[in-house]
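Hi, here's the filled form for the chain we discussed.

Project: internal
Contact: R.S.
Residues: 336
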Amino acid sequence: MSSKNPKRTLFWKNCNICLILKPKYISIAGNHPVARFFTADGTMSTMPSNILPAGRFALVLEYFGAPYCGWQTQDGQRSGKVSIQQKLEYALTQIAGAPVQAIVSGRTDAGVHATAQVCHADVPTARPLSAWVRGVNAHLPKDIAVLNAYPVDEGFHARFSAATRHYTYWIENRPQRSGLLSGRVGWHHHWLDAARMHEAALALLGTHDFSSFRAAECQAKTPIRTITEISIVRDGDFICCTLSGNAFLYHMVRNIVGALLWIGTGKRPVTWMVEILHRQNRTLAAPTFSAEGLYFCGADYDKAFNLPSIRRMPQFGLSYMNSAAGSPHNKQVGVK
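And the returned structure, exactly as it came back:
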């Protein structure tokens, strides 16, 4: 069955359904409006109004990055590991019934995790909103999950529309490495002075040339970046390094954490951070710290996109849980 007015007809691919958008085919079933439609054999049926048309969606993901070569698909060809992008696009394709590409806000490295990674995808098929969350999750491995999905305007771009990106690095600071948190936190066996680390980190606030913290493989056109928030907090045996900025260079966060470790152990003075920042020479800075404790924690977008705040912090340790519940316990800068 077809309509003479193409603007009043919707086709659902792979379903052999033609919906005629006329008032007499709209009714109420309980508290839910439903649309009347005709199947191929001419039988009238109903379809819940929660079916969303094809278009662009923003997805929020969390994942454990250790088994993967990073976000980008092309990296898998070199390392022998698959990428998170490959897994997600496969799952989206299973639900959409057609190939779907996902664009991410922050392209994480091998071994880096995410608590609130943001990506967008243009889906060619009408589906309920739940299909892009629970449906996609049914086709993902257990260490990758979609948390939320939001229909967005075509002007939204997960990467280029992001105004601020948030990262957190968790360091377990005790003599013995962890058996339970292996791959999920960084580890340093010597005592770290969080107060010294925090004081040094404050020098990075603002807009600077971050060449001293830029990996040789970095392909960014400019080393100029703006850090809007940075803090180093001790929580029992853990040290939490939080950084927010407009964008980050390749390995920039891990290189900053590596420098902070040298300052935290007393190997370098607090003023050394300013010195290496101004020298703009990567060879004069500390080694890159491991990827294990690094988390992409969200991104901020203009209010015009009508998205909720997308920022989620990873949580480790009983003291962090207690403080989050309103009972501060060792959650101060430099307090053990």
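Let me know if anything looks off before we file it.
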